Amino acid sequence: MILAGVSLKYGRVLLLRPVSSICTFNMSKYRKKHTWDRDQKKLRVLVDMDCVLADFETNFLKRYKEKYPDEPFIPLDKRKGFYLTTQYEKIGVHNDKIYSVINEEGFFLTLPPIAGGIEALKEMSGLPGVDVFLCTSPVINYQFCVKEKYDWVQKYLGKDWVEKLILTRDKTIIHGDLLIDDRPRIKGCEHEPLWRQVLFSACHNKTYKISNEIRLDSWDTNLWLPMILEAQKRKSSEVQ
Ligand SMILES: [Mg+2]
């Protein structure tokens, strides 16, 4: 083999291989397909799990207090900022203690469902022209977390929903129209993700000032349904 590499010119990728096996990959065809995927008429909604469907913060506080009854703690109404470790560090609690609770077997499986979330998801996915997927980031110490997320989905939403579960550490590379997520300022490889974020209200983001995001305070049908219908209307006007 003499040449190995890739050169990009005039919208075509030329794979640098020996002359006999030169092949080209048409970038304009790829772009066309990419655009078509994006413009499907169905509204694709991505829904996060922790703090959106599953009550991560309540379960953490309960288990933390049981495990470390003599340590200081932060009540839910005083939680501020996405990372527990950052705020607990300020009151003198070492990160190891926080991780020891989160990484414990059973932690993710025992997260209680957030009020109305399961019903809302089932109803949303039954709307004509709407596709719903779960999009969640497992913790780095995945020993129990990954399996328990699957088990949680099967337990509360049913087996069909296991197929709709997307596990990723980078949500910006997932295609969708809306991402309902409690984490402000989601970052990743894509600087401009295809989805628009809907910030789901959680104890840690209550005081976070939003600029371009839409906020969803709860799974009250009077809140999420008009938001989805509006997004659907906007999308169909963009596609036409
Ligand atoms: Mg979350």
UniProtKB/TrEMBL annotation:
The lineage of its organism: Eukaryota, Metazoa, Spiralia, Lophotrochozoa, Annelida. Transmembrane segments: none annotated. Pfam families: NT5C (PF06941). GO terms for biological process: pyrimidine deoxyribonucleotide catabolic process. Gene3D superfamilies: Deoxyribonucleotidase, domain 2 (1.10.40.40), HAD superfamily/HAD-like (3.40.50.1000). It comes from Owenia fusiformis. GO terms for cellular component: mitochondrion. One of its GO terms (molecular function) is 5'-nucleotidase activity. This is Uncharacterized protein.
